[in-house]
Write a structure and sequence with these properties.
Layout lengths: L9 E2 L12 E2 L3 H7 L2 H4 L4 E3 L5 E3 L9 E2 H10 L6 E4 L1 H21 L6 E6 L6 H14 L2 E4 L2 H10 L7 E4 L5 H13 L2 E6 L3 H13 L5 E4 L24 H13 L6 E5 L9 H20 L6 E3 L23 H19 L5 E4 L3 H4 L3 E11 L7 H8 L6 H11 L5 H23 L5 H22 L10 H4 L2 E5 L3 H4 L1 H5 L6 E3 L9 E6 L8 E2 L2 E3 L2 E3 L2 E3 L16 E5 L5 H4 L10 E7 L5 E7 L4 H7 L4 H17 L5 H16 L6
Parallel strand pairs: 6-24, 7-8, 7-14, 8-9, 9-10, 10-11, 11-12, 12-13, 13-14, 16-18
Antiparallel strand pairs: 1-2, 3-4, 4-5, 6-15, 15-16, 15-23, 17-23, 18-19, 18-22, 20-21, 24-25
Length: 667
């Protein structure tokens, strides 16, 4: 489906529209696709249908799509409520195949004489159904798994049962128990590759090998000089947390020769970083690692594999730039540059090409999950003031001067661009004076309210006057006048990176896209924390601080009169599910795995129910049954004392019983 905007006839914009005063074209779904940048961040996996709904294309083929709005409605009819994670295994499979293809193409084009494998770091998304899908697809592609702790090691061993040849790379801090488990698994026939992060781990490997009569294979992580880049710059380079310096690696080779274990040194590992946005950082690191590989091979180390670690980034904002939420390279460029750099260094030194391995997790799973939630209401600034309130405030014998000044600015709000800056400055000064007088006790509440409403109206008029060409002195105005849309989700559970590191995620309505959005807003979650909000969104040239949205009924509107307004939050498959916390005891969300069936319709493959109130209470050591017994006792005591009726007591008990089994989110 083409994503180019469509030319149409012009119509006049409503004067109350807060977005722009310019004449507009007839709105089409193609305009929505352009507005939200779907083609830029969607990587071919998402698009807008002709009927104005958001489509997912698991195979990046527009003719074979899944309508996400239909999915949301279908889940609601099955009483699977929002927020819900819609996982798309088809997208995951396509991402893995595309990574395999990119490296295979580069290897063939450059006549590289070894192969490629990717190992998925399960820390990126440890949900069992996701890991099993990665394992199943990966087995066909020669891929493997990576673990970084004892619990993950046990999970990795369980996941690779029946997949003995699948590589299982073991990173992280290790003690004797960790190493012994790895060595015994290797003795069982598993393809284990423990990575030495600290020099003493070599002795642990030697001890376990001797104790169990095993010739283990292992890798060594190198602490390279190449500097880190981006948010996780400190995780690599000389000051990185893991790895051996070049001098320590040389001592390690000498030690391995002494204890007759040098033949086990199969892999040289490094860590480029995470979400590497500039391809130059990849090139520099790979070159250094390749030269280190060549020198170690010349020193007698039988290394067969170069593991570049993670770093392959995702273009979250669609800007294709060297910024934290984007990348300035394509998957094909990444693969080609990696293969070319290693081949060039090896050929110059006359050393065999090693198998290339990467630990790409974010790039595999990010696109495969969509968080769908609904807006439960909004709070908007009035474009026009409450005229009755203003009249009553002005109707006193001597209205305060700030009220007269801001009212005068309001009366002048339709001036041209040349005078609008002065009008807005007058209104802003008058409001500041009004607040000062109120705080000193010299202005009543009604008058202050009138001043505020007149000021907001002047601000809206300024936005109307300048449209998208706001002067720099008014650049704060869209944020100051942004609507607040309340969404049924916890940022701290489902979008922790948005709060913690200002990660930008694509967010947009999944329906009504054939209708022009006439509001600008930010999103507020249902936690009681003021930080529970999202106010950074993909935009032209990077990000924007408000999101274009449609009108929704205000909070308190009868639910029977309100149709759901669904938003999709995209590229959430990496880290968000495993990093989430229990702020306000809002637990894991519902999750469903959705595929396109042979009949062209979508079908549910797996349902993972979200946590109940009972679940999350037990995590913080509240015993639900004990709480239930105590409350029932209190209810009976209140009935006996005639403070409540038996029917009221029954209602309270019913709330508790049903509430304990219910979803932690609004239903």
């Amino acid at each position: 489906m083409s994503m180019n905007p469509q030319t149409a006839t012009s119509t006049t914009r409503d004067s109350s529209d807060p977005i722009s005063t310019s004449a507009r074209q007839v709105w089409t779904p193609l305009d929505a696709a352009e507005l939200y940048g779907v083609e830029n961040w969607g990587s071919g996996y998402f698009g807008v249908s002709d009927r104005g709904t958001l489509m997912a294309y698991p195979d990046a083929i527009p003719e074979a799509g899944i309508d996400l709005y239909d999915v949301a409605l279908g889940l609601a009819s099955r009483e699977i409520g929002t927020p819900v994670i819609v996982r798309l295994p088809g997208v995951l499979q396509h991402r893995m195949q595309d990574l395999r293809r990119a490296f295979d193409d580069a290897i063939a084009a450059l006549d590289y004489q070894a192969g490629y494998s990717c190992v998925y770091p399960i820390k990126v998304n440890q949900e069992r159904h996701v890991c099993e899908a990665v394992r199943d697809f990966g087995a066909e592609l020669g891929f493997g798994l990576e673990v970084g702790s004892k619990p993950e090691l046990i999970a990795g061993l369980a996941l690779t049962r029946g997949f003995d040849e699948m590589p299982l790379v073991c990173n992280g801090f290790k003690d004797a128990e960790y190493i012994e488990t790895v060595v015994l698994a290797a003795k069982m026939g598993r393809n284990m590759l423990p990575v030495v992060e600290q020099a003493h781990e070599l002795r642990l490997i030697r001890d376990a090998a001797l104790a169990h009569d095993v010739r283990p294979g292992f890798g060594v992580r190198a602490k390279l000089a190449a500097p880190g880049i981006g948010r996780w710059a400190g995780s690599s380079g000389i000051r990185g947390k893991f790895g051996l310096t070049v001098g320590e690696i040389l001592h390690a080779v000498e030690y391995l020769e002494e204890v007759d274990l040098l033949d086990g040194f199969r892999m040289l590992h490094c860590h480029v970083g995470s979400q590497i946005f500039d391809i130059r950082a990849v090139k520099y690191t790979v070159s250094e690692l390749a030269h280190l590989y060549v020198e170690l091979v010349r020193a007698g180390a039988p290394i067969e594999i170069l593991d570049l670690g993670g770093g392959l980034g995702v273009d979250y904002d669609g800007s294709q730039s060297a910024t934290d939420s984007s990348v300035n390279y394509t998957l094909d460029q990444y693969a080609s540059d990696v293969v070319h750099r290693i081949k060039s260094v090896c050929d110059e030194a006359g050393v065999d090409h090693p198998t290339i391995m990467t630990e790409s997790g974010r790039a595999l799973v990010a696109h495969s999950s969509v968080l769908i939630t609904d807006v439960i209401g909004s709070r908007t600034f009035r474009v026009e003031p409450d005229h009755d309130l203003v009249r009553r405030a002005l109707g006193v014998d001597e209205p305060p001067q700030p009220l007269l000044d801001v009212h005068e600015a309001y009366e002048r709000r339709h001036v041209g661009e040349d005078e609008m800056l002065e009008v807005y400055a007058d209104a802003e000064h008058a409001l500041s004076e009004a607040i000062h007088l109120f705080n000193l006790g010299y202005m009543d509440l009604r008058t202050r309210a009138a001043c505020e409403e007149l000021f907001w109206a002047v601000g809206s008029a300024a936005l109307e006057t300048y449209g998208d060409d706001l002067p720099e002195s008014l650049s704060h105005l869209p944020d100051r006048l942004a609507d607040l849309y309340f969404v049924n989700v916890s940022v701290f559970q489902s979008l922790l990176d948005s709060w913690g590191i200002d990660q930008v995620f694509p967010i947009m309505p999944i329906h009504r896209l054939d209708e022009e959005p006439m509001r600008r807003g930010i999103l507020a979650d249902i936690t009681c924390d003021s930080d529970g909000r999202v106010d950074r969104f993909p935009g032209e040239g990077g990000h924007k601080t408000t999101l274009e949205l449609h009108d929704v009924p205000p909070p308190g509107t009868d639910s029977g009169d309100r149709e759901p307004y669904y938003l999709g939050i995209f590229l959430t498959g990496a880290y968000q599910e495993t990093l989430g916390d229990l702020h306000n005891l809002l637990g894991d969300t519902n999750a469903v795995h959705v595929r396109r069936g042979s009949n062209g319709r979508w079908r549910i493959e797996t349902v993972v129910e979200g946590e109940t109130v009972r679940d999350v209470l037990s995590y913080v050591q509240f015993e639900p049954e004990q709480m239930r017994r105590h409350l029932r006792h209190d209810v009976e005591a209140a009935i006996e004392a005639d403070r409540i009726t038996p029917s009221e007591g029954a209602s309270l008990r019913r709330f508790l019983d049903e509430g304990l089994q219910g979803y932690t989110y609004l239903e």
